[in-house]
């Protein structure tokens, strides 16, 4: 994982479990949507969203990501 770019490069082909977490503060009228991307394609089942004026902490785990080297 390149910390500067947040790009992960697999060393071996196979299935990977990817987990990400966040602490988000949303102001009135605001929202936050976060997704993982695999080869520049948005992974729909990785959606983490906050739409209400609140502070929220949460995480998402995506199991079915296959990397081919």
Written account of the structure:
By secondary structure, the chain is mostly beta strands. Helix content is 0%, strand content 64%. It has no helices and 4 strands. Strands 1-4 form a two-stranded antiparallel sheet. It has a two-stranded antiparallel ribbon with strand order 2-3. A hairpin with a 2-residue loop joins strand 2 and strand 3. The radius of gyration is 14 Å and the shape is elongated.
Structure described in brief:
The chain has 69 residues and is mostly beta strands. Helices cover 0% and strands 64% of the residues.
The total strand number stands at: 4
Radius of gyration, taken over Cα atoms and rounded to an integer in Å: 14 Å
Order of helices and strands: EEEE
Largest sheet report: 2 strands, antiparallel
N→C terminal distance: 15 Å
The pLDDT mean sits at 83
Provide the spatial order of strands within the biggest beta sheet: 1-4
Number of helices: 0
* Helix/strand structural class: mainly beta
Strand content range: over 45%
Helical amount: under 10%
Task: Identify low-pLDDT runs.
Answer: none
Shape: elongated
Task: Break the fold down into its secondary structure elements and pairings.
Blueprint: E1 14-26, E2 32-38, E3 41-50, E4 54-67
Antiparallel strand pairs: 1-4, 2-3
Features:
69 residues, mainly beta, two-stranded antiparallel ribbon, elongated
